[in-house]
Amino acid sequence: MALNSIGTDLARTPSLVLVRLWRGFRAARRFPLLPSLMLLVVLVIPAIFAGQIAPHDPDKGDLNDRLLPPAWVGESVKYKTVVEKVNRENRMNEIVLKDAERRVKIGDANVTGGGQSVKVGDQIEIISRRAGSTKYLLGTDKNGMDIFSRLIYGARLALVVSLMGIVVSGIIGSSLGILAGYYGGILDAIIMRLVDVSLSISLVLIALVLAAVRGPSIDNVLVVICLFLWSRYARLVRGETLQLKSQDFIARAQVAGASNLRIMFKHIFPNLANTIIVLATLQIGFVIILEASLSFLGAGVPRPNPAWGLMVADGRELLSNAWWVSLVPTVAIVLTVLSINLLGDWVRDWLDPKQRQI
Amino acid sequence: MQRFILIRFFQAILAVLAVSIIVFSLSHLSGDPLTTIMPMGDVEPEDIDALRAKWGLDKPLHVQYGLFLGNAVRGDFGESYAFGGQTAMGMVLLRFPATLQLAGAALVLTVLIGLPLGVITAVRKDGFMDYQGKGIAFLGQAIPNFCLGIGLMWFFAVWLGWLPTSGKGGIDHLILPAITLALFQVAALLRLTRSSMLEVLDTEFIKMARIKGIAEWKVIWKHCLRNAFIAPLTYFAIIIGSFFTGTVVVETVFSWPGVGQLAVNSVFARDFPTLQAVVILGSSIYIAANFIVDIMYAYLDPRIRYA
User: Is B276 on the interface with A (CB under 8 A)?
Assistant: First the structure.
């Protein structure tokens, strides 16, 4: 009685709204809202509307704007010094500086007070890094290409390559899995040995050989993904097919005179759809990592395509002077894979609560 | 058991053969390797023919494969195209200690971090440490290792200036690459140890040990961990196998002069013998590791043999 009255007292207080909101939030938390939004912002929207969003051409750079930092980064002055000699002979147009090994061009954008009228004895400042501008939101790389635009087109590349890889390997793997599970016997034995072989081969090493032979290309990435991903589908689908095959409705379909092909397509496949979708969503993150890693190694997408992995590789040597060139795409990759994995876990729990193993 | 080992062994050999066939046929897909590596212009046709005969490129493909396989078994992958006079195997062996050092350091890190964290997160299930552990496990498996490498390099080497950015030198050069290589496996080992510990913590004999009044640390680290150790123990082979392929990326990030970097460099130099040597050796280590895992599992858990 006492407890009840406390309950109703609470119910009448304004905090009920908060409690309700909290409960609603708890329920909604099962759906990973934040990761999904992040995924939309980082991957899907840029991939679809790349042409509309990107402010610059991803493959054309302005060499005057090389290695500009992101918009929010200010300029940094490295040192002040005195002009020791002005060298205008033979179109050299150089300023020789006191106490410095470096010579700079007259009129260099990185020098203040080093214009055409510079004289010996002038005070000048060498700017080691120019300020970022809103023209290039996330800065530029060593070719003066806009990193923001390249990131956006890179999202399209990552999405297209990974989806194609997933779909093709999914179709091949599922078909072979159903065939192996349904017919059994020697066909099953051959397919499953191939699966074992495929699962025990290292992807990166084979991709390197392929790249050495044919040069880096998007086709290579797709071939590597398909050659090795199909086996995961095949193994899972075969197991499920074996279970389904022993059930009554398959035997009845056979008695009713359905052809083997019809049974596999109309009776077995629909029962496997959830499993296949779950595996596919769980593989997207893996495939994006694989594509990015191969591109990073120079064995994946060739230059000058705006692949994220390539962008990271291009900025690796510049890390101490221009961190943004490789850190910006690194962050994009990490955010994408994190949110895809969170979303994949949710899809698995939603569609297939039994199979938390995969 | 003998039959099981024999079957698995046969499968492992099959996998190695498959790798050798893939590598061999891919290397000959591009046509004549000599045309791609010869300098343009001033090469006499007789010199090309001599080189072709020397490397056995004038024989039919299946004969070449037979020769290739026979030589490969003896560890002879021919002369490196890029470094004249060096054998491909010699190049790999020259680089091998550096890779071994990196993989060893990563293994030590994995065990020192992954195992205790797995135990603690299981004991303090749903506690603060467990949430931290879940975070590490999730991040470790979602962050690609070259991204982690670049991030660590920027933060510790460029921003803080505590550690060298890349190359090989003292122990300080080893820290960042080893962490990068280890994190994924730390996450995996943590998850494996945690779930295995949770299972054992729930058993009667642990209850019994507690009732007997044995100190809690002894119950956990001695009675419980010893029994929970089977799954992580067999996983070590997988860890070692994956380190040898993971080094390809990590060595490229940190300019670590190991076998992985050699593989990437030989891609650009189109140095097929060296690449073949790396890929076949690397794949063999990976396949052997998988084989050892299967055998250890079957030995420790007899139910698997009959599956």
Answer: yes
